[in-house]
Amino acid sequence: MSKQKPSIPKGMRDFGPTEMARRNYILDTIKDTFRLFGFDQVETPAMENLSTLTGKYGDEGDQLLFKVLNSGEFLKKVSETEFNKGEGVVLPLVAEKGLRYDLTVPFARYVVMHQNEISFPFKRFQMQPVWRADRPQRGRYREFYQCDADVVGTDSLICEAEIISMIKRVFAAFGLSDYTIHINNRKVLSGIAQVAGEAGKESELCVAIDKLDKIGREKVEEELSQKGFPARALTALAPILDLPARSNSEWLVFLREYLAPSAVGTEGLDELEEVLSYLSLLGEDENYLKMDPVLARGLSYYTGAIFEVKVGGVGIGSVSGGGRYDNLTGVFGLPDISGVGFSFGVDRLYDVLDALDLFPQQQPDSTQLLLTHFGEDERKQGVKFLAAFRKAGIASEIYPDLAKIKKQFNHADKKNIPFVGVLGSEELATGTLSLKDMKTGKQETLSLEEAISRIKGER
Question: For position 75, what pLDDT does the model report?
Fold first, then answer.
């Protein structure tokens, strides 16, 4: 058998112990906030029926779905003679299933299937991988984790205010201080289309306007022209596409006048102001929050408030986003269920925290202590000590082999273990161990109880 060079598909990654410790830090921090705000955890399968997924993300999203071939179906190779005689049949490749594109649509399906078991309003969070057949690049992968929190069964705008509060709490826990929560309302975008004289073209407007920060105003106007927006419409859109620097209150004042001819646009503004009022009642200010009338979000199922979060100074796209969807469950036979939710992109958050050096130096789930030894008797003593350290809640391990002490210390260095306990003949005779702080280099001989106290005090 020939040797095969191991590889993984593009856009997929392995995660070693250090990466997993950091990813768990992100997940645990987010999970702590979700639970504090009353959300319960659920999970859904990696694969969904394609009928569940298609038509929910717009044409561009549908093209990025990973489709899964039906089991047992294949292309049968036949000779030209066999084919002409009708002795061979070429079976088409059929896909009726697909990998999750996001967690929101599967959640909507879950709600419909379990509606009799759910108490509404239902607050759920979900932390699982999703897959997109996208072109891999920094901050964009084909397999990546999302952390969703959604509330369904209520149209109260308290939920939108709580989403902003949760984002701010998580980012504060991460030590992030340079970020912006962009907020808009799809009804505002519908109103903008009406003011431009292009009512009914909200979808085309949103797809183009969502690219404003990527391709610039000139290219956006060019795309709108190609989609049938006349010159007069582009002129009417100019005050929006110019994006002058305005505070939230200034944007609200401007949009009140600009959207006055549009009832739906005015309704969107009313909802945005109500969200801000609830945010104030929650004790939150408007720091990090920016009204953004050109924020569109690419997904077609949003109907109300929409959010997107970007971190400054890292050159990575949005790290969180979401919005309200008032009719998503309707396609599954359960109409009139309003919902709102958002998602943290774990992989992008990882890249952000790594770039800004904001990960804790020592992860809480990492090994805190390595016990080393000079011989067989010392190793047995170390095994006895191991149980005591673990009982005290200290993540500990012992070097399992009889090896030179330098090799054992190198093992601690490679794993970034902060403390090493050394057991030699003197420690064996006195029932002590020498504890070395690998960061400071300080080493002292301590009793088992003293060593436990010292390590716990340093954590």
Answer: 46
